[in-house]
UniProtKB/TrEMBL annotation:
Lineage, highest ranks first: Eukaryota, Fungi, Dikarya, Basidiomycota, Agaricomycotina
Annotated source species: Cutaneotrichosporon cavernicola
Domain AB hydrolase-1: 6-241
Protein name, UniProt field: AB hydrolase-1 domain-containing protein
Pfam families: Abhydrolase_6
Entries under InterPro entries matching the protein: AB_hydrolase_1, AB_hydrolase_fold, Sec-Metab_Biosynth_Hydrolase
């Protein structure tokens, strides 16, 4: 049985390069890994939408499934929303007919959430952003109001943490506040892994565990890493090991 492709979906502000270490670790374990470039955080455009992000994810998935390759989608933070929504109709358990020979066989969430069908990122809080950032309606971007090193990279060497903070992109506010009609919770159709980041200052572990509880009776396996919000940078080998374990289990469940 061939190994599934790992499609990696970044969170808000994060450039594709923050996944280089994880891609290398997965490749060394014999897996093909592809990182999605989300327009809302990499294009620099205030007009980049949630649907644009969904489309980018879907294109990466379909590039594999049309070739008959199964896919495991590993999403970080906000990336869970376009990951789940972009997998609509492509999962192994989808209620919709799927003509693709390959399927999305499972998700790995890293300090992320379980997308609610019909809800944009900010809908659950009534459009109010978390205290770490503000919605600048003049610029059209979500702007951090805390030290990004402390929020995202505090467990990295100081110089490396500052380097990544300087590389963070502009995050389109439109993608976070609008587009709920395109959101879809495909995570309920396949098994899931959730990586709790125990030192997370961006999404505290207590909140992550509350999010996991909201998944109800869904098939969710929980693993923990003693990292900041960026396990792909501070513990890439350990993160890769969990993704590989998840992919192996997802394949086994598909065969049963």
């Amino acid at each position: 049985m061939s190994k599934p492709t790992i499609v990696l979906v970044p969170g808000c502000w994060y450039p594709v390069a923050t996944f280089d270490k994880l891609v290398s670790a997965l490749t060394s374990r014999g897996y093909k890994a592809v990182v999605v470039s989300l327009p809302s955080s990499t294009s620099g455009s205030r007009d980049a939408s949630f649907l644009d992000d969904i489309t980018a994810v879907r294109r990466c998935i379909e590039a594999e499934t049309t070739l008959g390759h199964d896919v495991v989608v590993a999403a970080h933070s906000y990336g869970g929303l376009p990951a789940h929504s972009g997998s609509k109709g492509l999962t192994l358990g989808s209620p919709e007919p799927c003509s693709q020979p390959g399927k999305v066989i499972g998700f790995v969430l890293m300090a992320s959430g379980f997308t609610q069908t019909g809800m944009a990122f900010l809908d659950p809080t009534g459009g109010i952003p978390p205290p770490q950032w503000k919605a600048n309606t003049d610029t059209g971007f979500a702007e951090l109001v805390v030290d990004p090193v402390d929020m995202f990279f505090h467990d990295l060497p100081a110089e490396e943490g500052r380097m990544w903070a300087d590389k963070l992109g502009k995050q389109s506010l439109k993608a976070l506040a609008e587009g709920g009609e395109h959101a879809y919770g495909s995570w309920a159709e396949v098994p899931n892994y959730y990586i709790v980041t125990k030192q997370d200052h961006g999404l505290p572990p207590a909140m992550q565990k509350m999010i996991i509880g909201m998944a109800g009776d869904a098939d969710v396996t929980v693993r923990e890493l003693d990292t900041s919000h960026s396990p792909m940078l501070s513990m890439p080998a350990e993160t890769a090991d969990i993704i590989v374990q998840a992919a192996t289990e997802f394949q086994a469940k598909k065969s049963n």
